[in-house]
């Protein structure tokens, strides 16, 4: 299927424009100076607001003051009838300035959020609303806010952006959060109103528009992708331990390392650590090094590899030594596959063969994990028990074979041509199973949205060898890429502007801005380049650009961590979802590696891509409603 350029053009074309003016900067500087000093020029604030580009007729003003780990201050007031917005803003700002905790807040870290409610709120049945509901019952996390009127007369406010700030992604999570704060009985007696707002956050450069709590991404540019990559690598370098392990998981909203998938694990005495994802952290640094040639991440890479190899176990295959990665009482095919991919990429990029012996041994193990049917053994050890070929089907993994193929395909570049054929033969058998047999025998594991990016990348790597250029392989890669694009929100159909570039299983789903799938999509693009298939490459590039724009919404930049208790630790993290503040080493890996591998193609594609398809992505605008 071919896609019209309009599908990918300008993902913020439906957003109302916000171009900060000099008057906006004057207002910004005045209010920040007042917050730090406690002194206020009332007429100066009113005059500055009156000539600013902010809406001059609003129904409510909300101000929220953040200062690192200190509890935030929220103040709000509805506008009096016919009163100018500036007068209401001044009233609310005076209340904020007089708040007893304001003087105790760290002035250097202060960030001020301004929400302007432009339309009267509407009464809603909070307990009947939801993300999957339609019409008046639909509640869009991050876009809709709540006024909560208690039976005690108190008004509580959950601003739209608090979906982002409070790490809330679903209606169930919102109800759980409000129940923890107020109690179930209290909420049942409340009256609820729903509202939307134009939202802004202060920064060193002045006001930034927010949408769904996150600073508006604006145009997709090389500089923004490079900055996101630098931040991610900076975070990895900052948080890597001396033994080579990475910060596995972090919740920036709660300043917590408690993994939501393993909530019972003690984060100090018994933290969960996934060795596959450890390899991904090192790959991020390696791809960054390949791009930048700065040399500053080699110590991080080698520390990570050294930690990985401590987990290696050797075994004998009829006189040949093989090696696999063992961790958490398991030896996963994917763990060894990614480890081999890392070691092979390390030697290719650095020219350093110090780990070659381990690469040879891991390749030996992976080849011997391919059965006569072509199916891989998914775990050779599971909970400290060897897994037989008869037991293998009960330990099925959809992703591990692709990781193993990718590792072996990259390793083949290190092998002398006359020694490659035995591995080629095994890979042909494995690929026949994966592309022909698996869709039949494991049909229930497939969904409408493909997810095997590792296998796509592995086939792309194998295309360097003429004997592995089978049309069935390339057809699979391009078919999965097009299926991904078919299930990507386009500018022309996205329910909300920031959905554009995200994937979905069923139209209307919350968007999956997914770095792992994007790596597979980029692998398809690189395969098209290798095949000199210019038409397919250009078709894919437009979608890759929109996907990259979507991924920027997950990156914790200096301006997106205004709420974080520990901004230095949150900076550079790349989150799971638009309004989820969790991130993990692999969520960083997939997005940052995608960016690092995308950038070498940027300039050539910008020169040939129609402006409406790519260059206009994300004009500097913001959404008011």
Q: Can you walk through the features of this model?
A:
With 625 residues, the chain is of the alpha+beta class. It is 41% helix and 14% strand. The strands form five sheets. Strands 2-1-3-8-9-10 form a six-stranded antiparallel sheet, with helices on one face. It has a four-stranded antiparallel sheet with strand order 4-7-5-6, with no helix packed on it. α8 (275-292) packs parallel to α19 (585-598) and α15 (471-486) crosses α16 (515-530). The protein starts with 21 loop residues before the first helix and ends in a 17-residue tail after the last helix.
List strands and helices in order, with pairings:
Elements: H1 22-37, H2 42-50, E1 60-67, E2 70-78, H3 85-98, E3 110-117, E4 122-124, E5 145-149, E6 155-158, H4 162-165, H5 171-182, H6 184-188, E7 191-195, E8 198-203, E9 206-211, E10 214-215, H7 222-239, E11 249-251, H8 275-292, H9 298-310, E12 312-317, E13 320-325, E14 330-332, H10 333-350, H11 356-368, E15 379-382, E16 385-386, H12 400-411, H13 421-441, H14 453-462, H15 471-486, H16 515-530, H17 534-551, H18 567-570, E17 575-577, E18 580-584, H19 585-598, H20 602-608
Antiparallel strand pairs: 1-2, 1-3, 3-8, 4-7, 5-6, 5-7, 8-9, 9-10, 11-18, 12-13, 14-15, 15-16, 17-18
Q: CATH top level of the largest domain?
A: Mainly Alpha
Query: What is the structural class?
Result: alpha+beta
Strand order of the largest sheet: 2-1-3-8-9-10
CATH topology of the largest domain: Glycosyltransferase
**Percentage of helical residues?**
40-55%
Radius of gyration: 26 Å
Number of helical elements? 20
Supply the CATH architecture of the largest domain: Alpha/alpha barrel
Envelope shape: elongated
Q: What assembly state would you assign to the polypeptide chains in this entry?
A: single chain
Beta-strand fraction estimate: 5-15%
Report the uncertain regions: 610-625
**What would the average pLDDT be, to the nearest integer?**
93
Q: Quickly count the domains.
A: 2
Biggest beta sheet summary? 6 strands, antiparallel
Counted beta strands: 18
- Could you give the distance between the termini? 33 Å
